[in-house]
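C-alpha cells in:
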C-alpha cells in the first residue's frame, strides 16, 4: 500500500502495516480503523490534517506537511508483521523515502517495529548505520550527526492496546506531534 500525504512532506509518520479491517480494506493506510481514528484526530489537533476523521479514501482528508507510510505493504496475519515481511517490503519503503529525501526532516516511528524498520531504510537511502542503534522509547529522539538524514522520533503505536490501556494518551500523542513539528521546522 502506498503512502498518503503530500510528496514534499517535512514530517514522515512510519507505521507497521495496513490493518486488515482498516487500510487493507479502504486502500489508504490508517483509514477506517480505530488506530487511524486516534492518529487523524491528533493530526487534526496539531494542524497537520484538515479533518479529524477518515473512513475511506476520497473522503476529503488532506494532510499538511506530513506523509504517512508503512514498513509492511499489506495486512499481515494477526496484524503482527514479522521481520521477514518487513525486509521483503523494505524496497518500497526505501523508494518512498528516497522520493521524500529533498524535504523530509523528521520521521515519527509508531512503535518499536517501525523504529526498527527505520535503520535499514537509513542505510539504504542515506548510507548511515549508527552503532549501536538507539533504543526505542516513547518520545525518544535520534539525530544524525552532521548528516542530512531525517531525525527519528519514537511514539508508542496508536493501537487500541495502547490507547485503551492508557499507555498512550491523547496528551502524549499531542506532545510528540508538537515535537515532530518543532524538529521539522529546524534548519
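Residues out:
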Amino acid at each position: 500500500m502506498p503512502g498518503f500525504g503530500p510528496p514534499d512532506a517535512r514530517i514522515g509518520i512510519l507505521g507497521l502495516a495496513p490493518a486488515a479491517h482498516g487500510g487493507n480494506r479502504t486502500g489508504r493506510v490508517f483509514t477506517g480503523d480505530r488506530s487511524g481514528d486516534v492518529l487523524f484526530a491528533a493530526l487534526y489537533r496539531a494542524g497537520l490534517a484538515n479533518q479529524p476523521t477518515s473512513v475511506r479514501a476520497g473522503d476529503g482528508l488532506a494532510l499538511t506537511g506530513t506523509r504517512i507510510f508503512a514498513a509492511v505493504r499489506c495486512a499481515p496475519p494477526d496484524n503482527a508483521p514479522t521481520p521477514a515481511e518487513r525486509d521483503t517490503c523494505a524496497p518500497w519503503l526505501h523508494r518512498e523515502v528516497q522520493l521524500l529525501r529533498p524535504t523530509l526532516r523528521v520521521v515519527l516511528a509508531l512503535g518499536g517495529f517501525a523504529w526498527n524498520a527505520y535503520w535499514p531504510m537509513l542505510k539504504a537511502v542515506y548510507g548511515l548505520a549508527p552503532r549501536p542503534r538507539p533504543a526505542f522509547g516513547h518520545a525518544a529522539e535520534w539525530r544524525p550527526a552532521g548528516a542530512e538524514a531525517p531525525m527519528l522520533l519514537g511514539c508508542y503505536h496508536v493501537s487500541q492496546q495502547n490507547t485503551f490501556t492508557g499507555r498512550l494518551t491523547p496528551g502524549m500523542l499531542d506532545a510528540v506531534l508538537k515535537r515532530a513539528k518543532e524538529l521539522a521546522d529546524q534548519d
